[in-house]
Amino acid sequence: MIVWLIRDLEPIPTDPGDRRLMRMGMLAQALARAGHSTRWITSSFDHYQKRQRSPRAQEIAPQPNLTITVLPGPGYRENISLARIRHNRVFAKAFAHFARTAPERPDVIVTDIPTTEAAAAAVAFGDAHGIPTVLSIRDLWPDFFADHMPSILRPVARLALYPLERQVRFACAKATSIVGISQGYHDWGLEKGGRMSSPNDRIFPLGYAPRTDIDSAAASAFLERIGVRDTSRVVAFIGSWGHTYDLPLVLEAVKRPILKDALFVIAGDGPQADVLRPQFSALPNVVAPGWIDAAEIAAILRRADVGLLPYRPDAPQGLPNKAFEYISAGTYQIATIKGELETFYNETDGGRALDRPDPDTFASAIASALSDPDIARRRPERVEQFERHYHADVIYGAFVAHIETIARALH
């Protein structure tokens, strides 16, 4: 079976720095391992490092049965910007040109929202040529743009976003299969497409592929080097220091006396780092190691008692990758948004979702989690929940079987 995956914005296996693969990357690897000729089409722009992978189109073959087609894209500096909208449009047009001129056509196409531009282009190509399409809903574009603006500006925002709304409605209406990362995302896709649920429509959570090749000696040496001791009660945040994260809230919470005996590992890099990292590093109960690789992330999460998901109230994240990454190590989570995350925590006993906490409330929740012996005792149960329901092998094995079913049904 020939499968095309249309997804920009994710790390690819050849990106530097031992990067973690995300949803489309894990699906691409699973399809290739299952013996399917898999082509992942992405852009030259590295969304996370804000760099160009290549000045021109290229093809990469990181493993048998997998080819990554890299199409030129202009990139952008800010995630929410006109430059990003332009990049999304350029990539969608580049895909459409590639699809029209490709020497062979796929048996099935899989694409994602985001972005609406690429999703609409992929579904349109499939619809025009009788190729089944699977549309995965992993972010609620473009709704969150308007939903998280001041109410007085929302009518204007929705008018400005109408082209994206038209794209998402077209993609959801015409796709052969709607796949949501949760029930809420699945239902959102059906509503956008004006369609009833059918056997073609499924739910596959994000999932995560934990590292299994951890060098224990290297992990211990890394933890010791950054200041994590055997007796430390560790609270971790690992992520890009983008503006969707309320890191100033974390900074103020860390200063509260109730947390003076905890050790905070605040890792990663991004736009807020230049201002906030010196302030974090000046505190006696914080280490801020900067950007770390996948093996070092795994070492921290296995050692952390609590993992933080400190999103701003207007952040677009609904059910982020970080929730699955943290639970893979059994790390108890404290988040600052509710919604889909609160449902996830209720189902897994994996954490606690707070509603717009101030620093004192946030600090109190962290201290409560650190002092609760039942949370520590149930760590193996959280790992078991992950292994049974959210491990990448489980999620993407089932996703591959679904794609095979969709392809067979229309051929």
TrEMBL record:
Keyword Methyltransferase (UniProt): no
Keywords: Glycosyltransferase, Transferase
Keyword match Glycosyltransferase: yes
Pfam families (alphabetical): Glyco_trans_1_4, Glyco_trans_4_4
Domain of life from the UniProt record: Bacteria
GO MF terms held by the record: glycosyltransferase activity
Domain (Glycosyltransferase subfamily 4-like N-terminal) ranges: 24-194
Protein name: Glycosyltransferase subfamily 4-like N-terminal domain-containing protein
Source organism: Pelagibacterium lentulum
